[in-house]
Amino acid sequence: MPGCEPTPYNGKQSNSSVYHLLIFQKELKLEIWRIDDKNTFLDSFNLKNLPQLPIGQFDLNFDEKNENIEINFPNEFYKTKSYDLNSNLVLSKKNVSEQFFKKIENAAISEIIIFPNDNRLTGDLIPCFACPHWMAEVYSFLNIIKKEYLK
Fold this sequence. Notes:
By secondary structure, the chain is of the alpha+beta class. Helix content is 15%, strand content 29%.
């Protein structure tokens, strides 16, 4: 996303692979991808009780004590648009299974990308008529980056 560079994951790092998380809000799915010479799909998890999340690419922090993933919002892009909710959003065991947290226990996760829906098959993102006009930039970014995460 313009002006948004991911910050390295600050949790445990036992290998040299980097991982990305993808969330598809409509489908209530979370995917884990390994990022190296090519992007490799690793696993998918169902989400439940998902809070309203912003769309786009975000840095994250892993709270080992509480086994939470904190989504750092706003990112640099949202800040340039003066769109600040002054809050960090959290994924926890209320939202995704314990198997997910076991799977990522030693992973170096560098970012999370949140889509309104999985548009890899249909090609279309769900329109957001109530969103600010600049949300088209975020949607354009998501349409470009989705090509890096094809199964």
